[in-house]
Amino acid sequence: MDQGNASYPADLKYTREHEWIALRGGVGTIGITQYAQSELGDIVFVELPGAGTHVVAGEQFGTVESVKAVSELYAPASGEVIEINTKLPDSPETVNQDPYGAGWLVKIKVANPEEINGLMTAQEYRKHVEDEDN
User: Fold this and answer.
1) Residue 92 has what DSSP assignment?
2) Which of 61, 99, 118, 120 could disulfide-pair with 125, CB 3.0 to 4.6 Å?
């Protein structure tokens, strides 16, 4: 597994459960990390909440199913789902191919942007992954 800078973009914040969030103008785009998708293997199904659903930081909001396992998704911040990635039901493998781009999961209107400050930076997340692998 490549632990270099390319694996964890510096402009994102990360959770211990391997989700990322990009906050821009009060909207948080959420996905799973390069590490998470590589550990899961080939993703075959993604279950996401509908628009209008309220998610709570640290609580489950969906699942990702791979050929290996089903993994819960945890919200990195609280807010209302305003958009889901409609390409994923037909092409869940997009999460494997481009986890930080086309493979994003949901966009939320973040209720409290200060919550993001409690998440890990790319450097902190890289160390977390290294510690988890050892």
Assistant:
1) T
2) 120
- On the 0-12 / 13-18 / 19+ scale of CB atoms within 10 A, 80 is middle
**pTM of this prediction?**
0.94
Q: List residues bridging with 84 in a β-sheet.
A: 106
Tokens for 21?
Answer: 């969030």
Q: How many CB atoms lie under 10 A from the CB of residue 59?
A: 11
10-41 pLDDT tens trace: 999 999 999 999 999 999 999 999 999 999 99
Q: Residue 17's Cα: distance from chain center in Å?
A: 9
Q: Are 103 and 95 in contact (CB under 8 A)?
A: yes
pLDDT tens digits, 39-77: 999 999 999 999 999 999 999 999 999 998 999 999 999
**Nearest alpha-carbon partner for 117 in 85, 90, 86, 77:** 77
